[in-house]
Amino acid sequence: MMFGQWMDPAFLPFMAAGLAVLVLTAVELSALLFGLALSDALDNMLPRVDIESGEAPGIFSWLGFGKAPFLVVLVVILATFSVSGIVIQHTVLGLLGFTLWPLLAVVLALLITMPSASFLAGVLARVIPSEETSGIHRNELVGCHGHIAQGVATHDRLAEAQIAGPRGLRHWIMVRAERGEQLSPGTPVRIIAREDRTVFMARRVEDPDLLKKKGAAALPG
């Protein structure tokens, strides 16, 4: 199919959705280079739902919002809509020699997108749930130790930390430092509080392994 045909109004809604997926992915990857996460920022800006149960109202719950990160569900919906619409128009064009009226194609694509995106989001929610990580509630990470993995954390800027969870599993979370503190990559930290749905407060600590060695050395022989 020639480039001009892709730019035909019959394909524009689906090409726009595909372009949105590429842009969102590029922005997320670029943000991660600076220790930020677009997905976390969007989750923080959205109205709160029943976080403990992962439920969102009505059709949003069916689509997976509140169970998987908002950005993940949004990308799944946009990608499914884009692929469905392009396949519909391309198939009709090949069989009948013309494309469907854009609005009709959009409606048909949505009919395919809704159940397909719901299924895919449900699968992803089991892999990357929004509220739990590796089977634990995120509140359990408070008090755990780890280190800054990417970015520099200040009170106003988030960074990614790798934390050893209560079951010995590693978790990657977004953290901020206390006021006046700056936490560089590799800095050992302890999670002292959970600020909201996705952000934690981290405090600089001496290397936990070094603390254990000092404690053992202080014991009478």
Automatic annotation (TrEMBL):
Signal peptide bounds: none
Transmembrane segments: 12-38, 68-88, 100-128
Coiled-coil portions: none
Keywords in alphabetical order: Membrane, Transmembrane, Transmembrane helix
Residue span(s) of domain Inner membrane protein YqiJ N-terminal: 12-116
Entry annotated with the keyword Membrane: yes
UniProt-recorded name of the protein: DUF1449 family protein
Organism of provenance: Natronospirillum operosum
